[in-house]
Specification:
By secondary structure, this protein is mostly helical. Helices cover 78% and strands 3% of the residues. It is globular.
Length: 277
């Protein structure tokens, strides 16, 4: 199982990095859109939709929302409306603030979002802004570097949490939501993120940005990645699901791999906009 997971992870990483480096912004927007639609199909089952027609309807409606957001923000043009991008990402971060409260209070919070309609809305709020954030980052003048940095932050937080959690993880972070996550893993992920970003800042930044604001953005992004993971775990637990799907050998569903990014990307992109970077 470990070998299969490793092989799948390497193939995914190579394909993703290759797409980020080789594809033009519009092409990458399409690639990200396809990934989001696959995740939407998986979320439809997590939302409680059982018929194929209903799942197709949710996935198609997600596609329509991607198109609507792209039109509203002029995302794929040379005249991106930064204020509108900021507003949509701001609403997304407000959603994640609400999601944090729901995760912290689970299972009591399930009374609010246990309906199929509520979980459909949760899916749209989770997936659509993440796509907007990633495409906006790619349209940035330093887009490739920013997306790679975002991926590095999320991966480092996850790796740091895994190893520190295995070594010292006794006190559980959210036992009702994800029994495998611990406070040791949480702090280990933050320390790993701080270390990575501090080293990159020292090597590459040339004092263009202050270290403190750079670390603040990295920490917020790392914290959001944990929340994205926990939200998906909460919904799967409520539905009695182990994985969101079976598309990735050894990993489960695509949503299982994108969950951290769904929260981290909007927080990272909005932070850059608010910082004026």
């Amino acid at each position: 199982m470990l070998k299969q997971r490793l092989v799948t992870a390497i193939i995914m990483a190579l394909l993703l990095v290759g797409g980020i480096v080789l594809l033009a912004p519009v092409g990458l927007a399409v690639l990200f859109g396809v990934l989001v639609l696959v995740a939407a199909w998986e979320w439809s089952a997590m939302a409680g939709l059982s018929s194929r027609l209903a799942k197709v309807g949710f996935t198609f409606s997600t596609l329509c929302l991607l198109a609507l957001v792209a039109w509203h923000t002029q995302l794929l043009t040379d005249l991106i409306n930064l204020n509108r991008v900021r507003d949509v990402l701001g609403l997304a971060c407000l959603w994640w603030s609400i999601a944090l409260l729901w995760v912290k209070s689970y299972p009591a919070s399930a009374i609010i979002w246990k309906s199929v309609a509520a979980r459909i809305l949760m899916g749209w709020l989770t997936l659509v802004p993440a796509w907007l954030a990633l495409v906006y980052l790619r349209m940035h003048v330093n887009g490739i570097a920013l997306i790679v940095l975002l991926l590095a932050i999320v991966a480092t937080a996850d790796i740091g949490a895994y190893f520190s959690g295995r070594a010292w993880g006794k006190s559980k972070l959210a036992a009702e939501v994800s029994p495998g996550k611990s406070w040791a893993g949480f702090w280990g992920g933050l320390v790993a993120t701080i270390t990575l970003v501090a080293v990159l800042w020292w090597l590459l930044d040339d004092a263009r940005h202050g270290l403190v604001p750079v670390l603040v953005v990295a920490l917020l992004t790392s914290l959001a990645s944990v929340l994205g993971d926990l939200l998906e775990s909460m919904v799967k637990r409520h539905q009695g699901l182990k994985d969101s799907g079976r598309i990735l050998p050894g990993h489960g569903g695509l949503m299982d791999r994108l969950d951290s990014m769904t929260a981290a990307a909007p927080v990272f992109a909005l932070s850059l906009i608010l910082m004026g970077w």
